[in-house]
Structures are given as C-alpha cells and as structure tokens.
C-alpha cells in the first residue's frame, strides 16, 4: 500500500484520535485497542482531515517546525498508518 | 456509601503501580442466551443485586480519572439494562472509547441509532456458529437470523463491526464457513476466541475441548484466510492454551491494566477472579476505584513477582508471562500460587494431557453426557 500524492488524506472514521491527559500523549483508539503516539506522529495525523494531500501536509509541518527535508519520514509514517487502517484516501 | 467519604481527591498512584487502562463493566448477569462456555461464574445466580445508574456513573468517572480509556459494556447481556444509553452518554462525555459486547439479542435499529447518538464507538456481536441449527443449539435460543440482521445494521450505521465467535469442539469443523460468513457480513474485525476453560467452560470441558489435530487444522485455515483478507478484515486469534507449552501472560500482569466491575459492584483484577479463594474482592459501594486499585488486598495479591513459588521464582521467563493464569492454576492444581499447569516446567503439567485425553474419550462415547447450559437453574444446581 502506498500513499497517492495527489489525493487528500483522511483520518479513519472508525478510529479515534484523542489526547490522553493521564498518559500525557495522543492515542489512537479502535475496537478493544489503543496505539500510543509520539508527538511527531500525532502532529502528522492531526493534519489528515481530508483536505490536505501529502505535499501540503509536509509543507505545513516543515513550516510549523521551521525545518526542511521531512518528506521521506512523513511518507514512511503515513504508509504505516495506511496499512494499519488509521487513515484512508478516496 | 462509606467509601465515598474516604475518596482521596487526587489520583496519585502508589509507586510501582501502573494505572488501569481497560475497564470491563459487567452491567448484569441477566442474559437471554445460555452458552455453555459463558465466562460468568458458575454461581452467578446467587448475586442478585445490581449497581444503580448513579453507582455506574461514579465508577466510570473515577476509573477515567485514573487513566482508564477503553471501556467494555458487557454482562450477561448489557442490552437488558434500561439505562444503557444513559451510561454510554456518560462514558462518551468522559472521553472513553466504548465497546458494546453483546449477543445482539433484542438489539433494534432504533436502539443502534440511539446508542450511536449517545456516543457508542463500537459494537461486538457474538455468533455461535455458521449455521442456524448449531448457533441456536449452542446459544440455547433462536437467534441466528437476528444476529446476522444486527451485524448488517451495525455496519449500516457506521460502527466498526466486530464479530466474535467462540471456538470449541462443536463448531471447530465450521472454521472455513465461519470465515466466509464474516466476510459476507462485512466484518471489520473477527475475533476467533478458542474457548478458555474457566467457569461454565470448565464444567463442560469434556464436551468442548477439541483435539490437537482439530486445532491445527482450524488454525491453518484461519491463518490462510488472514493473509487473504489482509487490509480488509483484522483477525484476532485467541490461542487455545491447552496446546501451548508456555502460559499466557494473564491480564497483561495482575493489577497492571485491567479492571472488571461485576454487576453487584465487586471489583475484580480479572473477570474469572471471583473463583479464587481468599481474595476478599472489594466492592465499589464501599471504596473508591483509586482505593481499590492501589490499596486493596485483591489487586495487590499477585502484583509483581514476590508471591511466586518454584518453578516460576527462578524462571527467566517470569516477567514475560507472570506465572500464567492463577484461575487455571487453582482450578487444575488446587493451589492458585502454583505455576499455570499449561507451562511444561510445571510439576502438574500432566493434568493438561489428562484433560485432553478425557475430552477425547468423551468424544468417542456413544452416549455423551449433555452440555450444561448457562442458566439460573443450572447455576443454583451447581453452586
């Protein structure tokens, strides 16, 4: 499974992304399961709202963290996310 | 409600104790089904009282404050509680991810919509077999067609759909058909739960435990299917530990992750722990969840490794499986401090083979004794 660079990316309707106060981290919740996210993974997933494609997500994060060259890392993470069903594309 | 006045306003954890993440709310022991492998205690009929709506709300609030995030509404059949929608709403407001674990019996489209609006995240429907005849026999109720209808409705209203099928000798030959049924119903997840032999399943073990060959055949079919549907359907396969040589890491470690509240308010470190002697499991009517999790005798009983005897104490895998399942040790060896006899290092490991042999003999007899179905009459007879 690979990310289509043209299409917008959307967080899965059957998963929930949420900040957990007790754990001081963002988590993904799904039937009987939970994935704990580090800060960068959470930042990427929060931008998967169905309006941005890969390049837009990359550029937004590069701007936010005042850095460059994030394309490979973000693509690799989004492919894992796609494989796990956390995100989808039309 | 003496416990309320003792509640500490902070949610501090004692050193070395991890917070609960999973809360299983067994709302009731009432159930229209009579599955002979039910995980409820054999003597459930003697526990008649049920927590009130306000009690449950208090429990949900306190456990959430400590860090519980996954919430299972279970039973019995949780749909028999009139306040289910209200409790789901309360859970959603607190930020829980709510799982409804149901037989589907009595679940209408109207109720499915109400629960969705209240914030329910997922519905797990149990099906007992791939054919109406066997499903209705195992469930002790005519329910097959309705369950399939419920599965469609769950999907239609945008829930992730989880089918749960408990596997045993009566249905293990249907593995291929069960998988095909799950695919046809559009399940997002399929839980294939090999029967764990506690409670009612322990009483019916001679009639439920398949042979090793049956297990291996069924597992190979499930494995091949898992690859075929990768990316479409996730399969959770609960292993049959009688055919393993190391025990499962029971409850991810005692008092580390899981908290079960029984219908009458008794707090349990595992849903079978009511069978263990001398734990003095506390009740949420007397203590806060924080006191129960941190201070109670029951939740500290098997925490860590200090309680261990040999062969666990000197075993280099003791932090991996924590000695296995205490309920299994108690049921099969009479001593809950023993290693789980599933472990090949256990001096009592032979009891597992005896159980397997006994079940195999039972399968060969012409007049097999009948299954003992889970109902109040049998509960009173057996306890």
Task: Give an account of the 3D structure.
- The complex is a heterodimer of chains A (90) and B (383).
- Chain A is α+β, with helices and mostly antiparallel strands and 90 residues long.
- Chain A contains three helices and five strands, in the order E-E-E-E-H-H-H-E.
- In chain A, a hairpin with a 2-residue loop joins strand 3 (25-30) and strand 4 (33-36).
- Chain A starts with 8 loop residues before the first strand and ends with a strand.
- Chain B contains 16 helices and nine strands.
- Chain B has helices spanning 2-6, 53-66, 84-94, 109-118, 132-139, 144-156, 175-184, 199-203, 205-208, 212-228, 289-295, 297-300, 318-321, 326-333, 350-364, 376-382; strands spanning 22-26, 70-74, 97-102, 122-126, 161-167, 189-194, 234-238, 258-261, 267-268.
- In chain B, helix 2 runs parallel beside helix 3 and helix 3 packs parallel to helix 4 (109-118).
- Chains A and B meet through strand 2 and strand 3 of A and loops of B.
Which helices and strands, and how do they pair?
The complex is a heterodimer of chains A (90) and B (383).
Chain A: E1 9-11, E2 16-20, E3 25-30, E4 33-36, H1 39-46, H2 54-64, H3 71-83, E5 87-89
Antiparallel strand pairs in A: 1-5, 2-3, 3-4
Chain B: H1 2-6, E1 22-26, H2 53-66, E2 70-74, H3 84-94, E3 97-102, H4 109-118, E4 122-126, H5 132-139, H6 144-156, E5 161-167, H7 175-184, E6 189-194, H8 199-203, H9 205-208, H10 212-228, E7 234-238, E8 258-261, E9 267-268, H11 289-295, H12 297-300, H13 318-321, H14 326-333, H15 350-364, H16 376-382
Parallel strand pairs in B: 1-2, 1-8, 2-3, 3-4, 4-5, 5-6, 6-7
Antiparallel strand pairs in B: 8-9
